[in-house]
Amino acid sequence: MSELRVLRAGVVEHHIMAEAMKEMQQQRINDEVPDTLILVEHPEVVTVGPKAVRDGVEVQGYPTSPTDRGGGITWHGPGQLVAYPIVKWGVGEQSIRAIIGRLEDWAIVALADCGVPAYKDPSMQGAWVDGHKVCSIGLSFLHWVSRHGMSINIRTPGTRVEDLEGCGMNAGVHSSLAQLGYDRDPAGNPIDISRVERALLENCEASLGRSPSQPVEWGPEMPA
Question: Is 167 a catalytic residue?
Answer without folding.
Answer: yes
